[in-house]
Amino acid sequence: MNDQLVRILLVEDDSALRFIVKDNLEQNRYVVDVAEDGSQALELFAAQSYALIILDVMLPRLDGFSVAREIRKSNDQIPIIFLTARSMTEDKIVGLTLGGDDYITKPFSLEELLLKMKIFLKRSNNHLVGQPPSRAGMPVAIGSYLFAEDDLSLKRGEQVRRLTLKEAELIRFFAANANKVLSRDEILEKVWGSNDYFLGRSLDVFISRLRKYFGDDPDIRIVNLHGIGFKFSVKSGN
Q1: Contact, 209 vs 203, CB < 8 A?
Q2: Is 2 inside any structural domain?
Q3: Which residues are CB-contacts of 234 (< 8 A; sequence separation ≥ 6)?
Q4: Is the pLDDT score of 130 beyond 50?
Q5: Count of CB atoms within 10 A of residue 10's CB?
Q6: Residue 94 lies in a domain
Q7: Beta strands per DSSP E along 12-144
Q8: Residue 81 — φ and ψ, nearest 5°?
Q9: Does residue 44 lie in a domain region?
Q10: Which of 11, 108, 110, 131 has the most CB within a 10 Å radius?
Q11: Is 1 a residue whose pLDDT tops 80?
């Protein structure tokens, strides 16, 4: 149960499903704003602060992917959970590539949705409405980068990259296990909490992102060990 005011944006065009999800979230003491299409979602997002967004992919006027793309232009931190009725793996990968943190395939259980929400909100630094992110944690040096998990940021010199929650969790896990061989199953279990085919494809998307993020430091490599997993290789300084 939530002891603080936590505001959620639910974007779903199916009126019956929207009512059921909203009602259950409110019973769990979330404050829920709803949007019936993508354009309305962006209007609400611009006018209000949210802790988390539940975003359907297939929406009228503006689809969920386009909504996520616009949101990520101004906010890299807010967790986005996609709802999708599509079974195509490529659709799920597109959503994660655009900055989505997770997805749930319809039909889904409300218990599954609530569990995912609790995980993201627990780790989010913006989960209390009107409260600024915590910056209490000390940044960790990774090669020539400074990684601040509490601030969801990766800094090199004057350049600062904002991270999604899932990106930060994956970097944290890699940094804690630098230069070790990690199996795909181990990474998925520790970072995603489960292991299936779609999450395995999601991992590949996030690995590609992190290679780009660390690309300016030749001493940092994410090595793909075929049939085994990955090694986050960081050369120590002289």
Answers
A1: no
A2: no
A3: 142, 143, 175, 178, 179, 219, 220
A4: no
A5: 23
A6: yes
A7: 31-35, 52-56, 80-84, 102-105, 140-142
A8: -110, 120
A9: yes
A10: 11
A11: no
Could you tell me the CA-to-CA distances from 125 to 13, 134, 151, 209, 216 in Å, in that order? 29, 6, 7, 22, 27
- In this structure, the answer to whether residues 107 and 148 fall within a common structural domain is no
Task: Decide: 152 and 205 in contact? Cβ < 8 Å.
Answer: no
Judged against a pLDDT cut of 80, whether residue 2 lies above it is answered with no
DSSP-derived pairing of the beta strands 102-105 and 80-84: parallel
Cis peptide before 107 (omega within 30 of 0): yes
Q: Does one domain contain both 108 and 16?
A: yes
Domain count, the chain: 2
Q: What is the pLDDT of residue 163?
A: 84
Place of tokens 């232009």: 73
Which domain range does residue 44 map to? 7-123
The answer on 111 and 14 residing in a single domain is: yes
- Percent of the chain, pLDDT > 70? 85
> Which tokens hold the place of 15?
């009126």
